[in-house]
């Protein structure tokens, strides 16, 4: 509990630097050498959006808590994995944050989507209040599955990002479902969603020529979240190689999970250690200015990141991937299929073309964003509960 109230400055000097090792360092699909690329590693880590406990923000729901210290760590980890998706979507994986450098507007647009106020798309206020519909009272601790379900619902309001969010339940990723979701003829928001077209043929971000639109099937950028349980009380060693491979994929958004009741956002690994950003630091809430720009240094972790042994990981996690295009998704599927051939690596989930027969009929699982049937079915289990909720289909 003491750690939760440490300030950012007191934490800065307590973290050990990266070990001198020949092992490669993997950060969200990028491979680095400690000996020749230490600055690049730290710059990559610092550029990730870091969300921590905050205090003195407007009361949640008008009368609720004004700080999330002690209960909001998994919500903050959910914000971090989703912020990484928005960074990839609007700024690109190669974008870097440099202290003191004037950032582009899209960067502040992304950051504003998570700021601690009630009308930000993915604020702690929105997540906590949307969680009430998932059976979580405000201030109650979430597991990885609950936060994934809530973020999926909130993303439907984010027309700027125009994301297709899919949560693969029952340890099964169904390619047909994802293609249906991403190719739905929803209007795209902004020219970035239609990169093949020149801006002068766009009308409100979409092509004026309907015939042209028919020839160009739109692919909504995909955020794929996979809640998993990799063992009963501790992680089964057979999954460790597969988990490492997830951080090697260019589509990687990392992993949310942690130790029991203490959530972390895992962004990579070195050797047998996971590299993570820790939300357990309380910082004052930041007041956004009218211009949309505000002091942003406290949203970037400027010390070497934390590390922990993979064996200590709580078995309840959610793995995230971002596929900006259909080609990205096809490539991801190929990598997952190859991974099943790696010796000594147990698959963490199954990749199938069509819905397995033990699922209900396709109509019930029609995964439109507002489908209440899908939401009911996707409440398969919640990882903070020791007991699984078995579906009666």
From TrEMBL:
It is found in: Cytoplasm, Cytosol; Cytoplasmic vesicle, Autophagosome; Endoplasmic reticulum; Mitochondrion. One of its GO terms (biological process) is mitophagy. SUPFAM superfamilies: Cysteine proteinases. Signal peptide: none annotated. Its EC number is 3.4.22.-. Its main location: cytoplasm. Residues 39-335 form the Peptidase C54 catalytic domain. Keywords: Autophagy, Cytoplasm, Cytoplasmic vesicle, Endoplasmic reticulum, Hydrolase, Mitochondrion, Protease, Protein transport, Thiol protease, Transport, Ubl conjugation pathway. Cysteine protease that plays a key role in autophagy by mediating both proteolytic activation and delipidation of ATG8 family proteins. PANTHER family: CYSTEINE PROTEASE ATG4 (PTHR22624), CYSTEINE PROTEASE ATG4B (PTHR22624:SF39). Belongs to the peptidase C54 family. This is Cysteine protease.
């Amino acid at each position: 509990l003491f750690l939760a109230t440490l300030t950012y400055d007191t934490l800065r000097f307590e973290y050990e630097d990266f070990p001198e090792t020949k092992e490669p360092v993997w950060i969200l699909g990028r491979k680095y050498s400690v000996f020749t690329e230490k600055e690049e590693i730290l710059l990559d880590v610092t550029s990730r959006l870091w969300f921590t406990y905050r205090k003195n923000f407007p009361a949640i729901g008008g009368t609720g808590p004004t700080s999330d210290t002690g209960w909001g760590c998994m919500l903050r980890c959910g914000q971090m994995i989703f912020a990484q998706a928005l960074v990839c979507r609007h700024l690109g994986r190669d974008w870097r944050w440099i202290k003191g450098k004037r950032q582009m507007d899209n960067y502040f647009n992304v950051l504003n989507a998570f700021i601690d106020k009630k009308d930000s798309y993915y604020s702690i206020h929105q997540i906590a209040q949307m969680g009430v519909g998932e059976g979580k009272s405000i201030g109650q601790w979430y597991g990885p599955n609950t936060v994934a379900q809530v973020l999926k619902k909130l993303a439907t309001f984010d027309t700027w990002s125009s994301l297709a969010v899919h949560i693969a339940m029952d340890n099964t990723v169904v390619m047909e479902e994802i293609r249906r979701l991403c190719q739905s003829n929803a209007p795209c928001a902004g020219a970035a969603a239609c990169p093949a077209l020149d801006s002068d043929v766009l009308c409100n971000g979409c092509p004026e020529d309907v015939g042209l639109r028919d020839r160009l099937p739109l692919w909504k950028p995909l955020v794929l979240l996979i809640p998993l349980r990799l063992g009963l009380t501790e992680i089964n060693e057979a999954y460790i190689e597969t988990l490492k491979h997830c951080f090697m994929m260019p589509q990687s958004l990392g992993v949310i999970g942690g130790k029991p009741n203490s959530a972390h956002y895992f962004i990579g690994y070195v050797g047998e250690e996971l590299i993570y950003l820790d939300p357990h630091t309380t910082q004052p809430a930041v007041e956004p200015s009218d211009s949309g720009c505000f002091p942003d240094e406290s949203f970037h972790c400027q010390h070497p990141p934390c590390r922990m042994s993979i064996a200590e990981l709580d078995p309840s996690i959610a793995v995230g991937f971002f596929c900006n295009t259909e080609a990205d998704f096809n490539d991801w599927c190929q990598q997952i299929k190859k991974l099943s051939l790696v010796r000594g690596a147990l698959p963490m989930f199954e990749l199938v073309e069509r819905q397995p027969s033990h699922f209900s009929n396709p109509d019930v699982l029609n995964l439109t964003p507002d489908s209440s049937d899908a939401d009911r079915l996707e409440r398969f289990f919640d990882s903070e509960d020791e007991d699984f909720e078995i579906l009666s289909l």
